[in-house]
């Protein structure tokens, strides 16, 4: 085997072979769900202006502080490889005038995202997300619908025992009161929390609740809970979200310390984890429009990490339901036969017949072996004689029976055999 002096970039991975089929399957399921719920697909650029994320995701979040791949163009524009999709979709919604479409505008995406994280299992520097976003409507039923879609996506993939962790972080006003209470609680404990939490205490106190340090987790398990600080409208909103979820029997668990690691959320936030792996994250982000200084645009959405979904599919031995189309294999022997076969493959393709081949090979044995490996029952053989007579041998690999037919009749013959099989 030859060697190459280059390796893939740290934290990034090639997707190919069987692995690619898992990614395709996740995309296919997401697309079916999107069609069912009438979401339109959106594809935004990989590069965005840096400020889009510093303002929306928040300056003091891990994503913005530590994890963005930043670059400067020759024209001195400060760009980043998008670390997440919500801010991009929000930008695209406004920039493309979707505010004048019927609301809510429902969009979904599937694509790569980039975060300069410490690579480990389930954490990559380039990873894929499927995301669903609904913009332009603040009704609590949409929060529940977003969660239901995430739940159904995981169910369709084949996961079981799915429980949604949910919380409400209220609005700016509830949050102001809550942050005061949290600061008061933390003031007496700054000596026992990690250095990062000490910084968070000053810069963005809410982030202490996502600290992964076990000691901090222990400390904050006794902290005041945001649900106790919700104003009446936020409380009513949350109550309705939970009622709608109960209506469709989505299992949920209240997690009073769930705040999510991005600053644009308000009111409902949720996550779905399987085997301690956070797979889905989302919530309402009416606050994003304020951060980006646009008209008030309420919105809600979620995204799912595809790598983590694929790893779990393998772990749980979820089979890829590969619906293989009925196919034929075409074998050619000799120069003239190769030329004829080359053309027939195209003609069959135009008639929507799936054809496998090994057109670059000359040996009958090699080609037959490939047809056998693919377990294809109908094999077309063109040798020197058939090429000259405009005929083709059609062989049933199960029974071993073969007949010679005119090339003009190939399509009809194959379609009849497909019908019978
Ligand atoms: P997030 O929680 O940062 O939210 O990411 C969502 C999901 O992406 C995570 O639950 C995880 O499965 C996956 N993920 C995140 N980082 C990595 C990584 N480094 N490697 C592999 N997978 C990863 C968001 O991105 C929000 N935009 C979600 C949202 C949509 N909120 C409203 N709409």
Structure, described:
By secondary structure, this protein is an alpha+beta fold. It is 39% helix and 21% strand. The chain contains 15 helices and 16 strands. Strands 1-5-6-11-10-9-7-8 form an 8-stranded mixed sheet, with helices on both faces. It has a 5-stranded mixed sheet with strand order 13-12-14-15-16, sandwiched between helices. Strands 2-4-3 form a 3-stranded antiparallel sheet. The radius of gyration is 28 Å and the shape is elongated. The chain starts with 16 loop residues before the first helix and ends with a helix.
Chain-wise SSE layout:
Layout: H1 17-36, E1 40-41, E2 47-49, H2 50-56, H3 62-66, E3 70-72, E4 78-81, H4 86-95, E5 105-114, E6 126-135, H5 140-157, E7 164-168, H6 172-187, H7 195-203, H8 214-220, H9 232-247, E8 252-254, E9 268-274, E10 277-284, H10 288-291, E11 299-305, H11 306-315, E12 327-332, H12 335-350, E13 354-357, H13 364-373, E14 378-382, H14 384-389, E15 391-396, E16 402-406, H15 410-420
Parallel strand pairs: 1-5, 7-8, 12-13, 12-14
Antiparallel strand pairs: 2-4, 3-4, 5-6, 6-11, 7-9, 9-10, 10-11, 14-15, 15-16
Helix pairs in contact: 1-5, 1-11, 5-9
Bound molecules: histidyl-adenosine monophosphate.
């Amino acid at each position: 085997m030859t060697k190459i002096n280059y390796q893939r970039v740290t934290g990034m991975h090639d997707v190919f072979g069987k692995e690619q089929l898992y990614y395709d399957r996740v995309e296919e399921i997401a697309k079916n769900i999107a069609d069912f719920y009438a979401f339109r697909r959106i594809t935004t650029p990989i590069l965005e202006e840096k400020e889009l994320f510093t303002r929306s995701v928040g300056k003091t979040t891990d994503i913005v502080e530590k994890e963005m791949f930043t670059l400067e163009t020759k024209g001195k524009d400060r760009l980043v490889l998008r670390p997440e999709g919500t801010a991009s979709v929000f930008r695209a919604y406004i920039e493309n005038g979707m505010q004048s479409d019927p609301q809510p505008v429902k969009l979904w995406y599937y694509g790569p995202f980039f975060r300069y994280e410490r690579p480990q299992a389930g954490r990559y520097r380039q990873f894929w997300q499927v995301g669903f976003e609904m913009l332009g409507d603040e009704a609590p039923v949409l929060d529940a619908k977003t969660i239901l879609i995430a739940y159904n996506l995981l169910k369709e993939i084949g996961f079981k025992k799915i429980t949604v962790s949910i919380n409400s972080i209220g609005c700016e006003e509830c949050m102001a009161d809550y942050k005061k209470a949290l600061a008061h609680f933390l003031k007496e404990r700054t000596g026992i929390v990690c250095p990062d939490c000490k910084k968070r205490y000053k810069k963005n106190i809410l982030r202490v609740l996502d600290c992964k340090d076990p000691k901090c987790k222990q400390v904050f398990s006794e902290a005041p809970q945001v649900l106790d600080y919700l104003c009446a409208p936020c409380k009513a909103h949350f109550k309705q979200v939970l009622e709608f979820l109960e209506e469709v029997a989505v299992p949920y668990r209240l997690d009073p310390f769930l705040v999510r690691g991005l600053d644009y959320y308000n009111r409902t936030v949720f996550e779905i984890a399987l085997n301690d792996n956070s797979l889905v994250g989302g919530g309402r982000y009416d606050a994003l429009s304020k951060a980006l200084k646009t008209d008030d645009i309420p919105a809600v959405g979620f995204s799912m990490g595809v790598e983590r979904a694929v790893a779990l599919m393998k772990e749980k031995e979820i089979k890829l339901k590969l619906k293989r189309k009925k196919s034929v294999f075409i074998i050619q022997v000799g120069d003239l036969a190769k030329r004829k076969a080359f053309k027939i493959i195209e003609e069959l393709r135009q008639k929507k017949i799936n054809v496998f081949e090994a057109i670059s090979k000359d040996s009958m044995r090699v080609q037959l072996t490939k047809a056998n490996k693919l377990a294809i029952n109908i094999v077309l053989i063109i040798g020197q004689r058939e090429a000259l007579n405009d005929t083709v041998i059609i062989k049933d690999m199960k029974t071993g029976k073969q007949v010679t037919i005119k090339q003009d009749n190939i399509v009809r013959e194959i379609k009849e055999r497909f019908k019978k099989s």
